[in-house]
Specification:
This is Extracellular membrane protein CFEM domain-containing protein. This protein is mainly alpha-helical and 170 residues long. It is built from seven helices and two strands; from the N terminus they run αββαααααα. The chain is 61% helix and 4% strand. The chain starts with a helix and ends with a helix. The relative contact order is 0.14. Mean pLDDT is 81; it is low at 9-17 and 163-170. Bound molecules: 2-acetamido-2-deoxy-beta-D-glucopyranose (4 copies).
């Protein structure tokens, strides 16, 4: 019984060590691949279902612990397509991000960083770059708010980091 428990612990820990660790910062903290597109239910999710289903399926097929699969072209381009859809929708609707992962450059950058850390795979910048939709005609709120969002995420990460520092100094 004891050794069974030890084995389960080992399996659980080994699984943790291997899983792609996406360092998001802010309230999200570190997330796994299967959480990277897990935005809350809502209009945006419905609108982008056909773009995001293949990405979620690709991530599920790889599993959270097969990092080389999670970082390959097919998976990454499916994720980009999903994020691009959400980005385009947010711009077209002039809406704010409902979640820091929606239509999010920081999310893609964090994913890329996780692939580099885990697999020493440097994703080409174009494979993780969101582009403005052709319908974009000028200044609009969501884009203006984008830097603010990024700063918010960075402040969140800093606060999170300080909390960890505080805890480890206690
Ligand atoms: C998040 O991941 C980074 C990099 O592996 C690690 O240094 C940090 O301690 C992790 N933070 C949490 C809250 O697990
Ligand atoms: C990881 O995924 C690849 C496909 O990209 C597959 O060939 C490989 O067997 C998988 N590895 C594990 C440990 O499941
Ligand atoms: C993945 O992308 C790299 C660089 O863009 C390319 O050389 C390679 O052929 C691609 N592999 C697949 C399976 O598409
Ligand atoms: C990571 O990849 C780079 C370029 O592909 C290579 O020069 C470097 O030696 C690799 N590092 C490790 C730890 O494998």
């Amino acid at each position: 019984m004891h050794s069974f428990f030890a084995l389960m612990m080992f399996v659980a820990l080994a699984g943790r060590a291997m899983a792609l660790n996406i360092v998001f910062g802010g309230p999200l903290g570190n997330i796994t691949a299967s959480q990277v597109l897990a935005i809350p239910d809502g209009q945006l999710k419905t609108d982008c279902q056909s773009s995001c289903d293949p990405a979620n399926q690709a991530i599920q097929t790889c599993g959270d612990t097969n990092d080389s699969c999670l970082c390959n072209n097919a998976t990454v381009s499916a994720i980009l397509a999903c994020e691009q859809c959400m980005f385009t929708e947010l711009i077209n609707q002039n809406a704010q991000m409902p979640d820091p992962r929606a239509g999010s450059t920081p999310a893609l950058a964090a994913y890329s960083a996780a692939c580099l850390a885990s697999q020493n795979i440097t994703l080409p910048p174009t494979s993780i770059a969101l582009t403005l939709p052709a319908s974009w005609v000028g200044p609009f709120d969501a884009l203006l708010n984008l830097p603010a969002t990024i700063i918010t995420v960075m402040i969140g990460a800093t606060l999170g980091g300080s909390a960890i520092l505080l805890l480890s100094n206690m």
